[in-house]
Design a protein that fits this description.
The protein has 191 residues and is of the alpha+beta class. Helices cover 57% and strands 14% of the residues. A hairpin with a 2-residue loop joins strand 2 and strand 3.
Length: 191
């Protein structure tokens, strides 16, 4: 219970850092939703961005504690893939490590703005109200952030059905993966 309260306080502080008087509103969901879906509509869109080498270099720099390199590579990556929430997170943490709290708050606002865009698309509790994602990576960002541990995954009617342990409680979340599946089919030349 204390963890949940602490997490809510941290989120509100981050929102206040980034949005001042409009902190109660949080990030503009419409902006992040448009960003995600416009990115996915690009002709060369690939939902498998998490396996690219340039992205892995950002993660490796972060794991080594090289904050300058993490920021440099992360900013270059985000110019290419502006919807990669996890990279916003590692860049934010690198900024925090260096005492750049304004930059930290900005990048955390982007991280949570992207996650909020996903959660605003439905409640994720059924196929009809599934969270709409543009890549499977988005599912994992969200699940990790809410403390969910994957127990079982299946694909049912264009939805990833994720059974998770979320802090001792079993939950089932549905993610609409039609956009990612269609992009993969285009890449493979399947109509």
């Amino acid at each position: 219970m204390l963890r949940s309260i602490f997490a809510l306080i941290v989120i509100q502080i981050l929102a206040a850092c980034a949005f001042g008087a409009d902190a109660a509103k949080g990030p503009d969901v419409a902006y992040f939703t448009k960003l995600r879906f416009d990115y996915a509509a690009q002709k060369d869109f690939s939902p498998g961005w998490e396996i690219e080498g340039a992205r892995q270099a950002v993660i490796d720099a972060f794991k080594k504690g090289d904050n300058d390199k993490t920021k440099e590579l992360g900013e270059a990556w985000l110019a290419k893939v502006p919807v990669d929430a996890e990279i916003y997170l590692v860049v934010a943490l690198s900024r925090k490590n260096q005492g750049d709290l304004a930059g930290y708050c900005m990048d955390m606002a982007n991280f949570y703005g992207l996650l909020r865009s996903i959660t605003s698309s439905g409640d994720g509790l059924s196929a009809k109200t599934a969270f709409k994602v543009i890549a499977v990576a988005e599912e994992y960002y969200l699940l990790r952030d809410v403390g969910a541990k994957l127990k079982q995954q299946s694909l049912v009617d264009g939805c990833d059905v994720m059974v998770v342990d979320q802090r001792g409680k079993e939950m089932t979340y549905y993610f609409d993966v039609h956009i990612a599946l269609q992009a993969e089919q285009r890449a493979l030349g399947i109509k």
